[in-house]
Amino acid sequence: MTSHVPVAADHVVTVDDEGRRTGTFDRSAVHTTETPLHLAFSCYVLDDAGRLLLTRRALVKRTWPGVWTNSFCGHTRWTETSEESVVRHAEHELGFELADLQVAVPGFRYRAVDASGVVENEICPVYVARAVGDVVPNPDEVVEIAWADPRDVVRSVDATPWAFSPWMVLQLEALRAATADGGPTAELVAALGRPSEG
Prior knowledge:
Oligomer: single chain
Shape: globular
Number of strands: 12
Strand order of the largest sheet: 7-4-11-8
Radius of gyration: 16 Å
Largest sheet: 4 strands, mixed
Strand content: 25-35%
């Protein structure tokens, strides 16, 4: 682990329990059975019809290959804000720009273990945005896409949570409980509905 990295290095930013940046780790080596806590983000993208973009992770992914998940995720670099990272990944993974980018769940954090024993351990703010342009998936990142009514997504996740990424299952609950004043976040929260009580 280092306190700085060369500009071209592909890395993740490690953090302490309060989210303060502590160093960097080579991205290709960070995900193991003892993955350190690091910075990431998740983004949920809507189209003009209010449909939610879902993606199926490429089969070459280190964690949860081939699993359906939210629109896209990624890691923040040492020199980036979370928002800058979201914009960069949107173009890299899906070939489009974003409009109306909003943070919906700023403090989201989770830890999950996949079937191979590899751990995800992230402080991962959740964003909502609108797509600008057509989706052009990067095959190294995404093997399949689908646009779906958010209410149908919730029903599918509630019925078969094991068919989706664990972070998406947790984030949908957080999004359904979120409050928003307007924009795509409010639209998505309203479409997802409130969590059932009890």
